[in-house]
Amino acid sequence: MLTIGIIGCGWHSRATHGPCLKQYKETIGGIRLAACCDLDGEAAEAYRADFGFERAYTSCTQMLESEQLDAVWVIVPEHLTVPISLQVMHAGIAVFLEKPPGVNTSDVIQLQETAAKKGIRHRVAFNRRYVPMTATLIEKLRAHVQEQDKEIYSITYDMIRINRTDADFSTTAIHAIDAAKFIAGSDYESLRFQYDDLSGIAPGLINIMAEGNFRSGVRVQLNCYPYSGSAREMVTVRGEGFSYELHLPLMESLDSFAGLICSEKGKVEVLREEREWTTAFGFYHENASFLDALKSGGNLTEDLSSSIQSVAVMEAIRNRAETYHG
Q: Distance from CA of residue 248 to its chain's centroid?
């Protein structure tokens, strides 16, 4: 029986990880939701009641000292992820970290080195890696490349939002950065950036455009528009005799099409995503597979080391770099 704690009971935690942990307990079992923590005592207590945790805390130090936990979810603002995750690691507890795992590469390397030294099992929550339709897309691409010796020309990732005025949108854009790399199955070789200054709308607000190549030779283009007229996230893969469009199921546009459009030599197949949102957008599987691995002792591949380059590109965008070289 795994004993689970969670630090951070805000909106994102309530919308994703709380429901997924509750579902796993009710359908799979083998876990005990022991404790949740938030600086806001009312939020922590509401979270406890809604998702079936046994106790609520307002101090993560007190929670870690009072509970015998096997794993802790760290779902906090970006600047708190590293110090709280290090505290959990130093307590010898497995940790599930929300993205980004640090605001710069040195943070991630520090976490990685600590996890390796102490043998801490962990996962970084890049949910796009666990989207079922992402897996279907990757399977189809592998069939073209490995079985049919076909060439992938390019991957384009469009991340568009409505009225997002974040002063640092790079911490959301990291999803596009990481998912494109994950789908390509290759690290970035080089990127060239362009920015639209939207500070007249809100301080620090920018559009982010990047183009370049993966080490595999596949071209890549990233387009992140936080203050636009629609909410959509789409991946377009073009190749020798085929084209795929992956439409991700954003909560902001649940009525829009979500799924995979497969075009091969003029023939079109539409795979519509019908699953419940937390499953369709990868949240349930990233939680469930982490718990499965902790219970079985199985391998965990989506770890801090696989996040370093994504954070490095994010950091380059935050610093308004003109280029990035991997």
A: 13
